[in-house]
Structures are given as C-alpha cells and as structure tokens.
C-alpha cells in the first residue's frame, strides 16, 4: 500500500459539488492499494501514519502527533499512486489493485483509523473527487509498505 500524507491546516473532498469530508488541522492521506496488498499491510500503514510525530512543539521541533494537537484525518482513495510512467507519455495503472480489492482495503483502512481513535472523514472509492487542502509547512511524506515493512521498526 502507498500513502501520501500531508500535514494540513484544513482539507476537504467534494463530490458532485457537495463537500463530503472536511477537516481542520491534521492529516490528508491519499491512499493507494496494490494487487499484493493485505489487511496486515493495511493495519501497519494506518498505525504508522497515525503515529507520526510531525507537528511542531513549543520549541519548533516536529515532535507532536495527532493526539497532542487534537488533529483530524481525511482519507481519499488514489489508485494513481500506482501509476507507472516509465514508458511513453501516458501513465499505466496496471500496477494498482483491481476495484474489488482496492475498495475492500480502502474501507478497511477507514475502519482501522476509527479503531485507533481517529474516525476519518473520507471521499468515496472510485468517485470523481475534488480535493482541496492547505498544506502546513509544507510537510508531505510518502509511505510505502513494500519499503517500510522490510525495515526494522524504530520508535
């Protein structure tokens, strides 16, 4: 699984002219699912993302997490994170999971976020969405379970 996580002061997702998800300070998470992804990877990614300490403390150091700042989460499905741009000028998306697996793990990611204490605002899988955000910092991180899970965990 892949995620692009952005620290935001606000973010929203709109479908057919209606705001369907909106947050203040927190994380905008664009989430992509690959064909080999599992529920284990889904849980790992959610736990990793939601535990990151990327908010500034009183000394200006990125040392605080969502809990300490009262942050919120907005999750948007983004199959294009698996876009392959190696050949030609038009990306190929054959590296992304099919719709059934993609939707199932996207929904599971939302459930896990809620279980961890951060019920997410969210878009709708497969919908044409307009995403707006005010990036804070900017702080943007790329998380990929294929890379993260091969590395020993550190606190």
How is the secondary structure organized here?
Layout: E1 2-15, E2 18-23, E3 26-32, H1 39-51, E4 55-56, E5 62-64, H2 66-69, E6 72-77, H3 99-115, E7 121-122, E8 129-144, H4 145-148
Parallel strand pairs: 3-6, 6-7
Antiparallel strand pairs: 1-2, 1-3, 1-8, 4-5
Helix pairs in contact: 1-3
Radius of gyration: 15 Å
SSE topology string? EEEHEEHEHEEH
Overall pLDDT, averaged?
Answer: 95
Count up the helices. Answer: 4
Measured between the Cα atoms of the first and last residue, the distance is: 21 Å
Residue runs with pLDDT of under 50 for 5 or more positions? none
| Helix/strand structural class | alpha/beta
* Bulk shape: globular
- Report on the biggest sheet: 6 strands, mixed
| Strand fraction | 35-45%
Helix fraction, binned, reads 10-25%
Q: Write down how many β-strands occur, each being a DSSP E stretch of 2 or more residues.
A: 8
Q: Any descriptors?
A:
155 residues; alpha/beta; 6-stranded mixed β-sheet; two-stranded antiparallel ribbon; 36% strand; globular
What does this protein look like?
- The protein is an alpha/beta fold.
- Helices cover 25% and strands 36% of the residues.
- It contains 4 helices and 8 strands, in the order βββαββαβαββα.
- The strands form 2 sheets. Strands 1, 2, 3, 6, 7 and 8 form a 6-stranded mixed β-sheet that branches.
- Helix 3 links the parallel strand 6 (72-77) and strand 7.
- Helix 1 crosses helix 3 (99-115).
- The longest helix has 17 residues, at 99-115.
- It is globular and about 45 Å long.
- The relative contact order is 0.29.
């Amino acid at each position: 699984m892949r995620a692009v996580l952005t620290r935001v002061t606000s973010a929203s997702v709109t479908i057919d002219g209606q705001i369907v998800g909106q947050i203040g300070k927190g994380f905008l998470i664009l989430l992509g699912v690959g064909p080999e992804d599992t529920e284990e990877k889904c849980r790992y990614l959610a736990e990793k993302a939601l535990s990151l300490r990327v908010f500034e403390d009183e000394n200006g150091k990125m040392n605080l997490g969502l809990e300490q700042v009262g942050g919120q989460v907005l999750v948007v499905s983004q199959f294009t994170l698996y876009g392959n741009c190696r050949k030609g000028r038009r990306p190929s998306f054959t590296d992304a999971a099919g719709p059934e697996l993609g939707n199932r793990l996207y929904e599971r990611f939302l459930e896990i976020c809620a279980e961890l204490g951060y019920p997410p605002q969210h878009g709708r899988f497969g919908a044409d969405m307009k995403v707006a955000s005010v990036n804070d910092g900017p702080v943007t991180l790329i998380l990929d379970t294929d890379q993260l899970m091969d590395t020993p965990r550190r606190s």
